[in-house]
Amino acid sequence: MRQLFVLAVVAALLVACDNSPVFHGMTQQQKETYSNAIAGEYTGRNIFIYNNGTDDATAVKVEGARMTITAQSMQVVMFHDFPISVLSNVVTDPALAEALATVPNQDILATYSFFNLQDNGDVNWGYEPAAIPLKLHYGGTDHHLTLKLSNGRVYYGLMKVNMDAGNPFGGNSIFDFSIDAIYDGDTLVQDFDRVWQDNDHYIITYFQKDE
Known about the structure:
Elements: H1 2-17, E1 23-24, H2 28-38, E2 40-52, E3 58-69, E4 76-82, H3 94-100, E5 106-115, E6 117-118, E7 123-129, E8 132-138, E9 141-150, E10 155-158, H4 160-164, E11 174-176, E12 178-184, E13 187-191, E14 201-209
Antiparallel strand pairs: 1-6, 2-3, 2-14, 3-4, 4-5, 5-7, 7-10, 8-9, 9-12, 11-14, 12-13
């Protein structure tokens, strides 16, 4: 009985001390309001960190990059003029590397969503980049490639005070859209996920917006 009493007291204390936020769903009007707060064009730079199998990684910074976030009617993030050709530095197939080096820049598209709205108006925001289809001719034949993208399931905590002040992302300036793998049809050509695969060829890409 004494043990039950102690456990009950401890449980009561834990409940009383629990300051965890309370999360809510969002109405359509709230989604539109928050979307309008983050919508716009952001300038910055694309940064690439890659390793082509050597001991040292290479970092490249490309200024003049742009990212556009649309309003709720589209719910899209666009990373403009992404240089697909950078992959030519890390693919292991020489013929594919030569073909990728000629690919023009493309826009990367991602869909975004809000979730876990709190009582104080803070909310989480995340996006999922879409795969990029490529048709390339190399090795004497046509290849229908797919670049599988990911942002590592990263989400951003948006504070209402920052959104009201016109700085919705606060100190968050990094927007990841890493290329995870290349497929030819259903066949995996190369995996760049160095964490889960023992692969010393990798590439990390992200957009860093201006402060």
